[in-house]
């Protein structure tokens, strides 16, 4: 079964991580051959190509330029016909809106992988609504609860993203190496956030919580994630100003965009991402748990499904003091921190074991494509 994944490809975050995982772990399901069609070159295309899968370039597309849309649609039709594609999966509303009609016209099964919580109101969602998929794959039960706002009466199933644990032969050496690079003592408790620089990811709330515990010694915070869009530059400047006002410039480190996130997590002690908006799922939470880190996040969205008291803290949305108290406990109480670390890896494996999740994807595609 040949499966074509359609996506834009100009950014890099959770969806892109999923696509790369499907490419790298394709050996887990030899009967399902993934291919990828992208509109924009960049990190995603490079990482997919490095795995050896077929990556088709459809050409840059902006909706305000109809000739670009028509060209990309023609390219997609050529790919589907020449490669004898069996199933097409559109990732996100942008891909669905632009390419869904081509897939339907060619008589191929059209799947929509819903990665974001739909509202049914955005311009892209209104366009995507015009092309109803045959089936919807949903990244969490939280997202599925809102699916009726986009595709009511369409069959769906939840598949948590397959996430591969990173295993280091000498994890302590990795920890020491990263900490030496960042001039961080080995006994300092490191709190890390890894995410896109978007306001709803909760950087401001994390910094506020850290500001209220700056008298507590022996901790440092690393923030991973670089500016990818113009709007994120002003947000980055706003966060720098907040740090300056709270006197945290020496204790909060900006690591920017990095390709060694597993190593950074391995060198950390706590993961904290106190979202201001609901995370549809949150692959990074699973990556942190696999790294053996207790997770502090909010009790809503995907984070509320992932984090249990056995592996971290899920606190009320917007509650700075609850975030502070959770972080203080983990910094000051190494015994409790170790207990959560032991349970973290098992929790990640239970939710996102790659073999189990890719088998579920194959079963759904085969069953509903007959």
Question: Can you walk through the features of this model?
Answer:
There is one protein chain. The protein has helices spanning 14-24, 43-51, 66-83, 92-105, 123-129, 141-145, 171-181, 203-211, 230-246, 261-266, 283-290, 301-306, 320-332, 334-352, 354-368, and strands spanning 2-7, 33-38, 55-57, 87-91, 109-114, 135-138, 156-158, 189-194, 219-224, 252-256, 270-272, 295-298, 312-315. It is globular and about 65 Å long. Helix content is 45%, strand content 16%. The chain is α/β, with parallel strands linked by helices. It contains 15 helices and 13 strands. Strands 3-2-1-4-5-6-7 form a 7-stranded parallel beta sheet, sandwiched between helices. It has a 6-stranded parallel beta sheet with strand order 10-9-8-11-12-13, sandwiched between helices.
């Amino acid at each position: 079964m040949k499966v074509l994944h359609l996506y834009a490809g100009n950014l890099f975050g959770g969806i892109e991580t999923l696509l790369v995982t499907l490419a790298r772990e394709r050996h887990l399901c030899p009967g399902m051959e993934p291919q990828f069609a992208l509109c924009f070159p960049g990190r995603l295309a490079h990482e997919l190509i490095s795995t050896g899968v077929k990556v088709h370039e459809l050409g840059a597309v902006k909706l305000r330029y109809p000739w670009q849309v028509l060209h990309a649609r023609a390219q997609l039709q050529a790919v589907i016909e020449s490669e004898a594609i069996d199933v097409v999966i559109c990732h996100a509303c942008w891909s669905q809106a632009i390419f869904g009609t081509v897939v339907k016209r060619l008589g191929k099964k059209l799947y929509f992988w819903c990665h974001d919580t739909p509202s049914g109101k955005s311009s892209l969602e209104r366009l995507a609504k015009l092309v109803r998929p045959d089936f919807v794959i949903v990244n969490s039960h939280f997202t599925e609860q809102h699916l009726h706002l986009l595709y009511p009466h369409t069959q769906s199933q939840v598949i948590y993203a397959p996430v591969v644990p990173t295993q280091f032969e000498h994890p302590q050496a990795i920890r020491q190496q990263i900490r030496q690079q960042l001039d961080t003592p080995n006994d300092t408790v490191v709190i890390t956030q890894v995410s896109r620089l978007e306001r709803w990811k909760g950087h401001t709330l994390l910094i506020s919580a850290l500001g209220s515990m700056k008298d507590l010694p022996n901790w440092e915070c690393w923030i991973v994630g670089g500016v990818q869009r113009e709007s994120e530059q002003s947000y980055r400047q706003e966060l720098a100003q907040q740090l300056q006002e709270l006197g945290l410039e020496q204790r909060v480190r900006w690591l920017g965009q990095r390709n060694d996130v597993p190593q950074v997590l391995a060198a950390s002690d706590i993961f904290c991402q106190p979202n201001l908006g609901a995370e549809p799922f949150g692959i990074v939470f699973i990556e942190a748990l696999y790294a053996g880190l207790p997770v502090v996040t909010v009790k809503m969205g995907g984070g509320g499904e992932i984090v249990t008291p056995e592996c971290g803290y899920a606190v009320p949305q917007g509650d700075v003091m609850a975030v502070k108290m959770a972080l203080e406990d983990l910094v000051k109480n190494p015994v409790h921190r170790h207990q959560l670390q032991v349970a973290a890896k098992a929790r990640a494996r239970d939710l996102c074991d790659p073999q189990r999740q890719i088998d579920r994807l194959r079963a759904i595609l085969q069953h509903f494509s007959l």
